[in-house]
Amino acid sequence: MASIKDLFTGIEASAGQSDDNAVEVYADSVRQALELASRELGIDVTLLDYQILQKGTRGFLGIGRAPYRVLVIPLADSHELGELSALESKLSREHGPGAVVKADADGTFRIRVTKTGIWLVLIPARGKGAKVSVDEVNNKLYSMKITPSDPGKIGKEVSNASGKTVKIGSWTPSPEYDGTMNIEVSEDEMKAFVHFVPPRYYGRHMEYDEVIDALKKTGVKIGIKEKEIKSYLDEMNYSRPLLAAEGTRTVNGKDAYVEYKVRVDTKGVSFEEDESGKVDFRNLELLENVVVGQLLAVKVPAEQGVPGRTITNKILPARPGKDVKIQHGKGTILSEDGTELTAEINGQVTFKAGRISVEPIYVVNGDVSLETGNIVFLGSVIIAGSVQDNFEVKAAGNIEVRGTVQKAFLEAEGDIIVFQGINGRDQAKIESTGGNIYSKFIQNATVFAENDVIVPEGIMHSNVDAGGRIFSNGKRARIVGGVIRAGDEVNARYLGTDVSTRTEIRVGIHPKVLQQLSDLTVMKNKIEEEQTQLKLNLRTLETQKRNAGGKLPAEREKLLKDLNARNAKLNERMDEIKGELDEVNSYINMVEHKGRVCAERTANSGVEIYIKDKSFILKDPYNHVKFSLQGDQIKISEYEAPAGVDSRVLITRRRR
After folding, report:
1. CA atoms of 6 and 13, how far apart (whole Å)
2. Of the candidates 151, 161, 186, the residue with the CA atom closest to the CA atom of residue 107
């Protein structure tokens, strides 16, 4: 970049410089090059001039980066000037930018040389601060080689200390001593920095119009910081570069989004206990019921964004926000412009795969019994009583049972809520294929939930599977007996009993994968047993055929042929099962090392813990403990409560 002397006076940049001590510096910026040269030459940075031999580039992510190549040249009489600079700093007692304003402060003064003359401004002292003396001003003028035209005027101004700018002399052109500047424009053309070299002796300071003109000649058209430039020049502190112009950054448009007016979060309700440890199931509000015409969702439209501009007036286009559609299902009406969704029927809100629907609700005012028969409904079912033995309830939405569930079968695509608990007597089966299961307790039952199983008062002698987590953290809650399997976590107040009841707990692998592995293993064992028996029968028949000269009765010949065909089919099926087993085992090995088992109070002996393919059999009780897989071993550490849940809250769901 050309210096201000080149731009306005035509005087060559080399005037008043000493090339003998010039150094060539490679650096990330001009400022860094000057700092490095200053340390190397032992000369203050304000006494250095420079010439950019090669402009550097930042590159992208460090690729293609190249340093600046700068020729740094000491100014003539730099050592003398350095001493005068130190003297100037001592005499002027000026405060740098950002200094704390104190109640007591010394007076200060500045002397500025411009085309219109030599100007003095005195800032009065505050409080008990020392006043500026005439000698200080005269010494400063002497160091600048300035002879005031009216010395008496200086004494008068020192006495008044008005803070106003007063002319004390006329300007004598001296280009070799004038201050200079260089303009640096960032590669993205978003910022322009001005680097100033202060004047020497009675040299002239840069002026506002010169800075503006130089910026425009460099190609800067917009974003000029006029107020900041004036303030910077008034301060006369050239130790930092001046950010003289800045472009406008692009503001990309915000994406459209759907604002739901009803609760769609199925994990937002809390189960809380009273002082006695009981859970009030009457106020759970797990279901979101709506009426015809009720507003369900509103689409907030995308924004277009605001284009940016560089300081060279190049337009930077903004990315408009992405549009989104309200995904709606049956029982809802979408407005013509696609911005509002309302309920078409009375019913319950369901939210599956990002799609909101309103399902009709089937209400059973008493028990599911001989009076109602089995229930199959393409919506949600609310049962005011209990589900008696040997009855079935199937629903495409949720199932809510206000009473108990006996040895019955319940299946729902959504959540299943049992207010008074499940007592299955080893024959109940409860399955949620796409939601959670909440029950006061579970005893002697088989339970599966695709997501979580939440039980405040304990799980006893049951087989419980959850794709996500299993929690039982009430005051009296414990998991005893049976097989408990969860994809992520099992967390209970107590695990097992002090009489070492066998309790199997498996985490880290989705129960469906474990069940598939178990089923394939059982089939493999059955085929192997049948093949063993087949081989014995085939060996017997083949021996009889050899002893009979290669011929058997027609009936036995047919039997031999059938057994060979059966053996071939078994071999084919065995190959298929082995292939499936290999796939399942490969998947298990690929699953990340997650899964943990936690006991808030005690994990008793007799509890068997399996995390992925690793096992830990408890032979002694452990208190306030967590079991997790680290590397190839199950490690024991301090208990961790369910995420976002304290000891008195059962699940991490927000009450509406």
Report:
1. 7
2. 161
Beta bridge partners of 251: 306
pLDDT confidence band for 280 (50 / 70 / 90): low
Q: Which pLDDT value is given to residue 606? A: 92
Nearest-angstrom CA–CA distance, 508 and 650: 22
> How high is the pLDDT of residue 609?
95
Q: Give the other-Cβ count within 10 Å of 359's Cβ.
A: 23
Count CB-CB contacts under 10 A for residue 153. Answer: 15
pLDDT by residue (tens digit) across 39-91?
777 777 667 777 778 777 765 545 566 777 888 887 654 444 444 444 344 44
Mean pLDDT for 27-34 is 77
Lowest average pLDDT, out of 253-267, 310-324, 579-593, goes to 579-593
The amino acid that residue 431 corresponds to is E
Residues 6+ apart with CB under 8 A from 446: 424, 428, 429, 430, 462, 463, 464
Task: Compute the Cα dihedral for 14, 17, 19, 25 and give only its sign.
Answer: negative
Contacts of residue 200, defined as CB under 8 A and 6 or more positions apart, other chains included, come to 47, 75, 81, 177
pTM, two decimals, is 0.49
Q: What are phi and psi of 46, to 5 degrees?
A: -70, -10
Q: CA-to-CA distance for 326 and 262, rounded, in angstroms? A: 14
Q: How far is 286 from 295, CA to CA, in rounded Å?
A: 19
For residue 183, give every residue at least 6 positions away whose Cβ sits within 8 Å of its Cβ, in sequence order, or none.
1, 192, 193, 194, 195, 214, 215, 218, 220, 244
Q: Where are the domains of the chain?
A: 17-75, 82-247, 455-509+591-656, 515-590
**Burial degree of 632 (CB within 10 A; 0-12, 13-18, 19+):** exposed
Only one residue has tokens 């692009």, namely: 250
**Rounded mean pLDDT of 528-545?**
89
The mean of the pLDDT values for the chain is 83
3-state DSSP call for residue 340? strand
Cβ distance 640 to 625 under 8 Å?
A: no
CB 466 within 8 A of CB 453: yes
* Domain with residues 455-509+591-656, CATH architecture: 3 Solenoid (2.160)
Which residues, in sequence order, are CB contacts of 83 under 8 Å at separation 6+? none
What is the rounded distance in angstroms from the CA atom of residue 193 to the CA atom of residue 225? 11
Express each pLDDT in 498-519 by its tens digit.
888 899 999 988 888 878 888 8
